Amino acid sequence: MKKNEYFEKQERVSIKQSTQNEGNNNIKKKLAKENKLRTNRRKKKLTLKRAATSTAIIVDDLNVDLVPDLVMQIPKIAQELQIHNQIRPDHTIRILNVDEKIKQLATTLKKLRYIIGKYEDDSVVERLIETPNFVRLITHFTGQALYPDIVCNAMWLIVNMTSYELDARVTEAFIECGILHPMHQILNQRGVGKTQLMIQFHTIWAIGNICGEEKLTFRERIIEELFHEKIITLIRFLEKLRYEHQLGESTETQIEDLTNISFWTFSIMYRPRKGFLQDIPLKYILTVIPLLREYMLHSENPSILFNVFWTIDYMIRHKNNDVLSAILYNQIKEKHVREMRTIFREESQNNLYFGSASPTAEDPTPVLKRLFSLYELSSSQEKLKQGVFNMLLNFVAGDTKQTKDVASFDNFKLIRIIRSKLCEHVQLRGCFYGCMNLSAEYEFVQELINENIYHLIASKIMNHIGGKFRLQTEVIEYGLNSICYAIINAKENLISTLVEHHRVLEVFNFCIMDTTKDLTTLILHCLTRILALGSRIADEIGSTNNVFHEHLDELDFFDKIELLTQHRIPEIRDNASYLLKMYCHMDSDEEDSIIHYTPYNSHVTFQGLSGDPQTPPPSSSTVDDHPYMMD
C-alpha cells in the first residue's frame, strides 16, 4: 500500500509540473506574440516616417509645370467625393475609399498652394482665376466642415493667391464667389484642435489680405460685416481656455500665432490709404481698443506688441484724441459706447469689453510705465523699440493734457530719449515731429533748450544744406516748425538763448526762400518777434543798436525779405512788408505800398507718422516674412 501511495503522489507531482510548464509555454507564446506585434508597429512607424520624408522630397521637387495637371485633378476628385457643386456632400450615396480620396484631394491642394507660395509667379495665379469654376470650387471647399484637411489647405491656398497684387482681381473673384460666408462660419467655431486653429489662422490671414487691397470697398465690406468683432470674440474665447485649462505647448504656440496674425490683420484693416477721403467710423475703431490696451499692458510677445503699436498708430490717424484717450486713460465717452452697443449683438458685448471703459479719465501712469519699461527692455528688439517710440510721439501729438502727462513723466524722460536719438542720428523724422509738438507747449521749451535739442535740429538741417547727408522735405519742415514754435511760445530770455547759441538765424537764412507758404509766413513771424525783442532790449539799456538786426544784416537777410515783398502770395508779401517797415529804414514810396501785418496761427494739427509695419512672423516656423506668403 505504501508503495502504491508513493507512485500516486509522484504522478500527481508530475501532472502539476507538466501543467505549470504548459502555462509557462503559453505565457512565453503570448510574450512572443506581443513582441512580434510591437516590432511590426515599429516597422510600420518607420515605414510611415520614410514615406513622409519621401513626400517632403517630392514636394520640394514641385515646379510650375505641374500646375495644369493639379488643376485638372481637383474637380475630378471633388466629383468623386460629391463636393464639386454643393456645400455639404450627399451622404445617401456611398463613396468608396472616402478617406483615401479626401487625403488625395488635400495633398493636391497642398501641392498647388506650395507651388504658388514658393515661386511667386503672377502668370500661374492669373491662369488659375481664369480657369472656369476653379475659384468657385475652392470657395466650396472652405465650407466642407466635415473634411477639415480639405478646408485647411483650401484656405491656405486662398491666402497665397490673395497675396499677389493683380489689380485685386484674385480677391474680387473670391468675394464674388461668396468666400465671406464660410469665413464667418469658420470664425464662429470654438475649440482648440490643431487643424481647427490652423484653419482659423489662415482665415484671419486671408481677411488681412483682403483688407490690404487698394480697392477700399473690400475693406469697407469686411468692417461692415463685423469681422473684427468675430476675431475679438475668438481671441477672448481662447484667452479664457488658456486661463482655465492646461493646454499643450504646441496648442499654446498655435494660439500665440493666431493672436499675432489677428493684430496684424487689424493693422492692415485700419491703415490709412492714399485717396481714402472718408474716415472709418469711430464706433468701429473704439471697439478694438480694449483688446489692444490689454495686450499692450500685459503681453510679453514682441511680435504681438509690435502689431498692437502699429494698429494704434494707424487708428490715431483717423480720430486721434478719442483713440488716445481710450488708450492712455481708458476713457470712452458714453455717447460712443451707446453707438457701439447698437451695432453688436448682446452676446458679443461682454466679449468686446468696451463697457468696462470709464467716461472719466483714469490715471495714465500704468500705461506710461509699461511703455517706458518696454523701451528699456527691448534693446535687442529694434522694431519693437521703434513701435514704443512712435506710440509715445503719438501721445504728445494729442491735446494739451495728453502732451503734458506724457512729456513730464519721469522727469522728462521722453525728451532725453529724443536727444539720444538725435545724437545717434536715428529716427530723425520721429524726433523732429515730437519736438514740433512739444515746442507748441511753452513749459517744455525750457527743457528742450537745456537738452540742447534745438541746436541739434539746426545742425542736422545745416548739414543737409551742406550736402553731408540728405533729409526728406517733410523732416526739414518738422525741424523748422520746432524752432519756430519755440520762438513763438518761449519767454524773451529763452529767445535770446535760441538766437545766440542755437544757429536759428542760420537755418532761417537758408530756408526762408525755399519752403512752403505756411513755413515762410511762420519764419517771418518769428523774425518779427526776434527783432521786436531786440528793440525792447536796446530801449532798456538806452542803446540805438538792435543786436538781432545786426545779426540779420550780416547774413544779408533783409535782401531776401525785400524780395519776399514781391511774392505772389499776399500773406507772405504783407508780412515781409510789415517787417521791413517796422525794423528797417525804407523810402516813403515803399512805405506807401505796405499793407497790414498778418500774424501766424501757431496751432499744431495732428499728423500721423508714416511708414508701414514690417511685421515679424509669428513664432511658428511655417510662416515667412511679410508680406504674408506661406509655403
Task: Give a short summary of the structure.
This protein has helices at residues 2-60, 67-80, 98-119, 122-130, 134-141, 148-162, 169-176, 180-188, 194-211, 216-224, 227-244, 249-269, 282-286, 289-298, 302-316, 320-328, 334-341, 346-352, 365-377, 382-396, 400-407, 413-424, 428-439, 442-450, 453-465, 473-489, 492-501, 504-511, 517-540, 547-554, 557-564, 570-583, 588-592. 70% of the residues lie in helices and 0% in strands. The protein is built from 33 helices and no strands.
Please describe what this structure looks like:
38% of the residues are buried. With 631 residues, this protein is mainly α. It has helices spanning 2-60, 67-80, 98-119, 122-130, 134-141, 148-162, 169-176, 180-188, 194-211, 216-224, 227-244, 249-269, 282-286, 289-298, 302-316, 320-328, 334-341, 346-352, 365-377, 382-396, 400-407, 413-424, 428-439, 442-450, 453-465, 473-489, 492-501, 504-511, 517-540, 547-554, 557-564, 570-583, 588-592. The longest helix has 59 residues, at 2-60.
Which key features would you list for this structure?
single chain; 631 residues; mainly alpha; 33 helices; 0% strand; elongated; disordered C terminus
What structural category characterises the helix and strand content?
A: mainly alpha
> What sort of overall outline do the alpha carbons produce when their principal axes are compared?
elongated
Query: What is Rg?
Result: 36 Å
Helix content: 55-70%
**What value does the average pLDDT take?**
79
**Roughly what fraction of the amino acids lie in strands?**
under 5%
